[in-house]
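Hi V.,

Quick status before I head out on leave. The structure for the redesign project is tokenized and pasted below; the design run finished overnight.
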């Protein structure tokens, strides 16, 4: 099993940046495919980005491509979501997740508690 704890959320103005962190414990994040999701008020949770096991590939939702960067630091057993040029529509609770599936996961087995990101215009 793996436990995930997100941090780094906050409030920024449009055009600003934030970096979210997801610290993994119990097992190394390289053992899993990792993902970032978000859920805005009154909306369903949506996919943001995914990283395969051992970081072979990274996939982004079209809405964040070119603005968000998914990375990992094995020495800290932590993955990150660098978010640049933030827009008000990026406002949501962001969740980190881990999947035991290979390839692009269809489901995730472990979830963090979420961290709030608020972007004002």
């Amino acid at each position: 099993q793996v436990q995930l704890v997100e941090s780094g959320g906050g409030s920024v103005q449009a055009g600003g940046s934030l970096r979210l962190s997801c610290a993994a414990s119990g097992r190394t994040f390289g053992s899993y495919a990792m993902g970032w999701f978000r859920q805005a008020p009154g909306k369903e949770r949506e996919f943001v980005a995914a990283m395969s096991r051992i970081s072979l590939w990274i996939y982004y939702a079209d809405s964040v491509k070119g603005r968000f960067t998914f990375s990992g630091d094995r020495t800290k057993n932590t993955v990150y979501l660098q978010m640049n040029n933030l827009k008000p529509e990026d406002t949501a609770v962001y969740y980190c997740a881990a999947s035991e599936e290979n390839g692009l996961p269809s489901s995730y087995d472990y979830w963090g508690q979420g961290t709030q990101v608020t972007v004002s215009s």
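Above is the designed sequence. The mean pLDDT is 94.

G. will cover questions while I'm gone.

Best,
W.
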